[in-house]
Amino acid sequence: MNKPTIRLIGLLMIAALAVTAAVWPDSHVLYTLDQTKIPAQVVVETPEETHATMTFAETLIDAIDELDIPLSESDLLSLPDDTRLEPGETYTVQVSRRSRVSLNWGGYAVGTSSELISMGDLISRSGFADYAPNDGVLIQNKDEDAPASNGALTYVAVEKKEVRVNEEIPFSTVTLDDPNQYVGKSKIKTEGENGERVLIFEETYENGIFIGSEQVGVEIVKEPIQKEILKGTKKKPLIPAVNPKPSSKVVRASFNKIKDLLIKNGNANYKSFKDNGNGTITVDGHTFSFIQKDKRAITMYDGLECCLQGGCHNPPINHNTASGIPAQRGLVASYGFRYNGKFAGTALPLGTILFIEGYGLAVVADVHGNHSDSNLLDACYDAGEIRSGAVTWGKRTKRVYIISIP
What we know:
By secondary structure, the protein is of the alpha+beta class. 17% of the residues lie in helices and 42% in strands. The chain has helices at residues 3-31, 60-66, 119-126, 248-258, 303-310, 385-388; strands at residues 40-45, 50-55, 76-77, 90-96, 98-105, 108-115, 136-140, 152-169, 173-182, 186-190, 195-206, 209-222, 227-234, 273-275, 280-283, 286-289, 292-302, 331-339, 342-346, 353-356, 360-368, 377-381, 396-404. Strands 5, 6, 7, 8, 11 and 12 form a 6-stranded mixed beta sheet that branches. A 6-stranded mixed barrel has the order 17-22-18-21-20-23. Strand 15 and strand 16 form a beta hairpin. It is rod-shaped. Mean pLDDT is 84; it is low at 2-32.
């Protein structure tokens, strides 16, 4: 190696040392500068884009404000917003966009923020999905696949209570026809009695507040007993069962009304008769209204025959009737009631005007004692007609029309 070469190498080494000496003072100067003059680097990552800046701001939120990045109260930062920025440091922060949701339970409302999730996720994360359907009702303002932004979940606690109320069952009343009682009469066959039942209600409470009540059932504890009333349908007789004896004048007055209409015709006292079917009869051209029609057993007697059979007079006489009128055609005897051996009255009132089919017009003027049939009538003939055979009535069942009673 020659001297020039050695000299060149030496110069290069000196140059290198000189450069090193020159650089070192510059670096040293760098670390000895005022730290407030060195910026921090802030990188903000939002779902929309990424922002980066060199800033001398003191806190992270100040740096974000400088970037004019819109943030809502619901947004969440990955670093505290009051993080102090150190000179020369790099800060990377992620912004999670959140939306406001409302959670309501038992009447209490809580507002909170949620990540951008669906309503279905919100239901699951809120814990409302764990409540049994029978315990309450979950109300949501959006479909489950819709974003949860501004979503509202309301859980209404529902309570059902059974309430039992005892109630009286009123008995009903029914009226039944009774042919054994006269019209206008009635009697109680069965007394009514109230029953008892339990009405079952279901009361609904939402969040402890009474909403309503619904009847869901009924239990019969005791059936009511129906009251039964028997109402008489039997027509009242126009003629009382027992009729006191009137004065002879009443009987004579009735007989005077018909005696001139009597036409002797064998067993009968008339020639023609017709039931007009309208509540009237026509006898020998004379029309009479009647108030009652029935069938009765009819026998015969005359005043002389009674005396002959009784042997009460010698010579025999034609007896008078109980009303004092001599026995003759146009008079009949009705059954006479006796109590304690004394006369009490007749089955048909004395003085009653009637018509007997096959016999004719007649007036009840006498009394007979046929105890086996109180409805029987004994038709009277003129004295001696039975003994002579002029009449052959015997005993017959015929229609009897009662025209009038005194």
